[in-house]
C-alpha cells in the first residue's frame, strides 16, 4: 500500500512503545526475526530495573540484521513535541503500544505520574497514529483493570466497576 508520498508502507517500521520491557522486548525480537524494521521506544525509568532493560536492548541489538533494522529511542510518552517529531520522522505503519507507568499501589501514591504517562502519553500515541496514517495500532492494557474482580479467568465481558488503581 502506497501513501502517496513515494514511501511504500512495507518500507515503514513498526513502532513498539515500552520496547525495553519484558513483553516489548519479546515482541521486538519476534518482529526482527521476521525481518521487520523496528523502532523501539522506552524511557528506561527505574520502576523496574534499568539494568535489566538495558540487557534486553543489548540482546535485541545483537540479533542478526539489527544494526540495519532496529533503532532505539529513549523518550517519555508525555513529551508531545518529541512524540510528534518521532512519528513524523519514522512514519510507522503499525504501533504496538505497551509503554505505561506500572504499579497499582504507585498509581494511588502518585496519580499525576499515571495520568501523564498512561493518559496524556497514550493521547500522544493516538495523535501520532492519526497524523501519520498508521495502519494498525495494538494496545495492551493490564489485568489491573479488572480490579477487585475475583472471577478467573478474566474476560472482556466482566465488569470493571471496582478498580484498585487509578
User: Helical stretch count?
Assistant: 6
Bin the strand percentage: 5-15%
Secondary-structure element sequence?
EHEHHEHEHHE
Helix content: 25-40%
Mean pLDDT score, rounded? Answer: 89
Oligomeric nature of the chains:
single chain
Shape: globular
Q: Can you describe what's shown?
A:
By secondary structure, the chain is α/β, with parallel strands linked by helices. 40% of the residues lie in helices and 13% in strands. It contains 6 helices and 5 strands; from the N terminus they run E-H-E-H-H-E-H-E-H-H-E. It has helices at 22-33, 50-61, 66-69, 80-90, 104-109, 111-131, and strands spanning 14-17, 38-42, 70-74, 94-97, 136-139. Strands 3-2-1-4-5 form a 5-stranded parallel beta sheet, with helices on both faces. Helix 1 links the parallel strand 1 (14-17) and strand 2. 31% of the residues are buried.
Q: Could you name the key traits of this structure?
A:
166 residues; alpha/beta; five-stranded parallel sheet; 6 helices; 5 strands; 40% helix; globular
What can be said about this structure in brief?
This protein is of the alpha/beta class and 166 residues long.
Topology:
Layout: E1 14-17, H1 22-33, E2 38-42, H2 50-61, H3 66-69, E3 70-74, H4 80-90, E4 94-97, H5 104-109, H6 111-131, E5 136-139
Parallel strand pairs: 1-2, 1-4, 2-3, 4-5
Helix pairs in contact: 1-2, 4-6
